[in-house]
From TrEMBL:
InterPro entries reported for this sequence: Aldolase_TIM, GH, GH114_TIM-barrel, TM1410-rel, TM1410_Glycdase
Organism: Microvirga aerophila
Keyword Nucleotidyltransferase: no
Keywords: Signal
NCBIfam families per the UniProt record, alphabetical: MJ1477/TM1410 family putative glycoside hydrolase
Record protein name field: Glycoside-hydrolase family GH114 TIM-barrel domain-containing protein
Organism lineage string: Bacteria, Pseudomonadati, Pseudomonadota, Alphaproteobacteria, Hyphomicrobiales
Length: 282
């Protein structure tokens, strides 16, 4: 089984371009670049809703708080709440959280409510792998990985209780796919940098470690897509060839996930959906 392609673009989104793009699954931010919520009409125009065979997902960081979101309070810069952790040095404005904390989970649920109210077909949980970070490991939790499983399941159960057709996708943390509870709570997974890291080809052993888990998800009927941050045409072609051979949806982009630029697509549609699209945003 070949998985659906997943387009991942968080900045410089045009409603008209998104509406005209023959994607299968696309993840966008629930806010435009001016930090204004997309209206329900705009979400529908871009492909959200059951009337459109495409699936449009809203982005939600489940493992980090972001100081540019409406829930952020300015007082947190000087008096952070107990559940707020250190800033991510690679992504300014993003802070690790004690994701098992009920106050943080209330924030997540409220953000999820907004995504559902806007008419998105699903949610894309990012920073699921925060449980691997040293700071989290130092918080005295017996099993941080299980804490993340519990959170994803709780949010999935909540969303699907309101809309059984609502989809839940996750980013990375592929080792959790071996957990049956986790696997049953999700509908798809995106793996970043499967074949290349920093423009360099990953070792066969590293790729095999990840694909072992990704194949578990694929065998269970979950959608599996990969994204690699490469710009060289030969590397893009290599990603396309490897992902196709592995039966994964594929996508190439810049690290900022800026814009949508259709450069080509395969000629074989997946099921009743639009053709499997190959994008390069560079």
């Amino acid at each position: 089984m070949t998985s659906l392609s997943l387009v991942y673009a968080l900045q410089s989104i045009s409603v008209a371009v998104a509406a005209a793009t023959p994607y299968q699954v696309m993840v966008i931010d629930r806010y435009n670049d001016a930090s204004i919520e997309w209206s329900k009409a705009q979400v529908t125009q871009m492909g959200g809703g059951q009337a459109d065979p495409r699936q449009l997902f809203g982005y939600l960081s489940i493992g980090e708080a972001e100081d540019y979101r409406p829930y952020w309070q300015s007082s947190w810069f000087t008096k952070p709440p107990a559940w707020l952790g250190p800033e991510n040095p690679q992504w300014k404005g993003n802070y690790a959280v004690k994701f098992w904390d009920l106050t943080w989970q209330t924030q997540v649920k409220g953000y999820l409510d907004g995504i559902m109210a806007q008419g998105f077909d699903g949610v894309f949980f990012d920073v699921v792998d925060v449980y691997q970070r040293g700071w989290v490991q130092q918080q005295g939790r017996a099993n941080p990985a299980q804490d993340m499983v519990d959170l994803v399941k709780a949010m999935s159960d909540y969303a699907k209780s309101l809309n059984p057709d609502f989809q839940v996708y996750v980013n990375n943390a592929e080792e959790l796919l071996a957990n049956t509870t986790y696997l049953n709570a999700i509908d798809g997974v995106l793996k970043e940098s499967l074949y290349y890291t920093g423009g360099q080809k990953n070792s066969a052993s590293d790729v095999a470690w990840s694909t072992r888990y990704l194949d578990m998800a694929k065998a269970s009927g979950r959608n599996v897509s990969v994204i690699d941050y490469v710009s060289d045409p030969a590397k893009i072609a290599d990603v396309r060839a490897q992902a196709t051979a592995d039966g994964y949806g594929y996508y190439t982009s810049n690290l900022e996930l800026r814009g949508i630029n259709l450069t080509g697509f395969s000629t074989t549609p997946q099921g009743s959906l639009v053709p499997n699209v190959w994008y390069d945003l560079l």
